[in-house]
């Protein structure tokens, strides 16, 4: 599993204009079974994704995010091997 941290590089107005396409991209990731979680950083300076797949696969997928294709965000990738999970989150360890 890969945690992806996004940091915005452009004014929030640009992010807001790109957000509908970004949300569509996230929804497709959910439908594909790739995306597990997405959320905004607080304060809103970027976001965080939790994604299934290899590091290379996740990097390739993230390169198709409208925020990436428009140069609006930087991406940091952190590979995680879950070992202790709260009840109800067992699927994250697979």
From TrEMBL:
GO molecular function, one term: hydrolase activity
Any matching Pfam family: YCII
Domain YCII-related: residue ranges: 1-79
Sorted UniProt keywords: Hydrolase
Superkingdom of this protein's organism: Bacteria
InterPro entries: Dimeric_a/b-barrel, YCII
Family listed: Belongs to the YciI family.
Listed name of the protein: GTP cyclohydrolase
Protein source organism: Sphingomonas koreensis
